């Protein structure tokens, strides 16, 4: 199935209710369980990834299919390792290609027992839950921060606590910081200096928690304003001005692409200033989920770019580097990559395809990053539009509300 998307001729001022953050929701569900909290979490995300986590906590089964949700797979692998019982956990075809050995090795060294059910190093997993001894451990910090967040959250429940020594350049660092801040909210303070994180033996204290809006989802609205007419403005609701979400960096980064943003009592208002840089360069090691938004925005603003720090993009919902090369190529943008960690557009173009259908590769961010391009390219198709439910189920409805025509 695919949809045809067409943008309105003119965008005026409008307001959007953003979805709740799935990263925060999935951490709070784990922390609520570990603190035996009686308080329901307020404004929990309605994304597939959070539903996948909730379904596990509401189930009587010992076998779970968490679909395509990376955080759910990683956080639950650690969580279930300390819950007495035998558990199996599987996921989508893609999830079975996303590596998990760093986390499994770590848990096995900390006193856990986890086996691979199919391919060595990848889900599905059989987990024999027991109490974990914990202690000191060295592990790579440059593959996925989710392994580290997963270990940190169960750290206080380990017999000897936990001391992690991270090797390599730490990737997605703000997500580790977010985990530590939320743990602190539940009464457990860790210590992070250089590449060493120390977690004390402690009991979490239940708290009443509310999930703020998702800054990664906000990025598509920054993109819409960047690609629209000067004077266009949107007010985004529910974002935290002092958020621990690393993707809040989007506001500063989009200044270079002609979007001004300002907080008021109503929310965060973005306006198109009509002034953008001649060139865009950024290292996305801290904000990998924003890379697609920037690649598509820059291309359609005709701004040559050099995006670096992209090595983790190859093991996300799809190989996002290759997916961007393929799909921007359909619109005539000739991109270069070392096929490892960068994506470059020097301004080279060829003729765009006729009747474009953007493939989404089961990746919500491919659909959401390309949809705003309708403001620059008159009508094209997007394949498998329902992928957006992974993080932002109301995405298409929200576009329709501001005048996008979405048919099919
Ligand atoms: O901890 C989290 O909530 C996330 C961490 C990041 O993953 P990596 O640490 O694998 O880069 C990010 O891409 C993902 O969408 C959510
Ligand atoms: C990479 C993502 O999610 P996850 O790794 O949790 O599947 C994402 O939402 O962009």
Automatic annotation (TrEMBL):
It comes from Alkalitalea saponilacus. Catalyzes the transfer of the enolpyruvyl moiety of phosphoenolpyruvate (PEP) to the 5-hydroxyl of shikimate-3-phosphate (S3P) to produce enolpyruvyl shikimate-3-phosphate and inorganic phosphate. Its EC number is 2.5.1.19. Residues 8-58, 61-399 form the Enolpyruvate transferase domain. It comes from the Bacteria. The active site is at 289 (proton acceptor). Phosphoenolpyruvate binds at residues 22, 70, 98, 146, 320, 365, 390. This is 3-phosphoshikimate 1-carboxyvinyltransferase. Keywords: Amino-acid biosynthesis, Aromatic amino acid biosynthesis, Cytoplasm, Transferase. It catalyses: 3-phosphoshikimate + phosphoenolpyruvate = 5-O-(1-carboxyvinyl)-3-phosphoshikimate + phosphate. Belongs to the EPSP synthase family.
């Amino acid at each position: 199935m695919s949809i045809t998307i067409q943008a309105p001729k003119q965008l005026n001022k409008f307001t959007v209710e953003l979805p709740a953050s799935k990263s925060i929701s999935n951490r709070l569900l784990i922390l609520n369980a570990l603190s035996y909290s009686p308080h329901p979490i307020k404004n929990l995300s309605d994304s597939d990834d959070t539903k996948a986590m909730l379904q596990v906590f509401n189930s009587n089964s010992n076998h779970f299919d968490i679909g395509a949700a990376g955080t759910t797979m990683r956080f639950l692998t650690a969580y279930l390792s300390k819950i007495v019982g035998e558990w199996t956990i599987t996921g989508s075809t893609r999830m079975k290609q996303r590596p998990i050995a760093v986390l499994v090795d770590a848990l096995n060294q900390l006193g856990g027992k986890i086996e691979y059910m199919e391919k060595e190093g990848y889900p599905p997993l059989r987990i024999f839950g027991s109490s974990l001894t914990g202690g000191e451990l060295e592990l790579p910090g440059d593959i996925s921060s989710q392994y580290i967040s997963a270990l940190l959250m169960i750290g206080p429940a380990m017999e000897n606590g936990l001391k992690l020594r991270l090797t390599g350049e730490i990737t997605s660092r703000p997500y580790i910081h977010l985990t530590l801040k939320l743990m602190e909210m539940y009464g457990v303070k860790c210590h992070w200096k250089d590449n060493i994180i120390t977690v004390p033996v402690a009991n979490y204290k239940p708290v009443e928690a509310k999930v703020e809006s998702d800054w990664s989802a906000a990025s598509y609205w920054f993109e819409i304003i960047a690609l629209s007419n000067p004077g266009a403005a949107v007010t985004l609701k529910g974002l935290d001005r002092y958020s621990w979400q690393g993707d809040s960096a989007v506001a500063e980064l989009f200044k270079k692409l002609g979007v001004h943003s300002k907080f008021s009592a109503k929310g965060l208002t973005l306006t198109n200033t009509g002034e953008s840089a001649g060139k865009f360069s950024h290292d996305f090691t801290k904000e990998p989920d924003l890379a697609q938004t920037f690649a598509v925005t820059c291309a359609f603003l005709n701004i040559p770019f050099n995006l670096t720090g992209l090595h983790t993009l190859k093991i996300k919902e799809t190989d996002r580097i290759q997916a961007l090369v393929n799909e921007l190529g359909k619109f005539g943008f000739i991109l270069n990559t070392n096929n490892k960690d960068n994506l470059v557009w020097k301004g080279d173009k060829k003729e765009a395809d006729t009747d474009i259908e953007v493939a989404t590769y089961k990746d919500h961010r491919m659909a959401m990053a390309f949809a705003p391009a309708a403001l620059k390219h008159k009508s094209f198709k997007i394949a498998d539009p329902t992928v957006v439910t992974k993080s932002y189920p109301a995405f298409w409805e929200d576009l329709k509300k501001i005048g996008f025509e979405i048919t099919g």
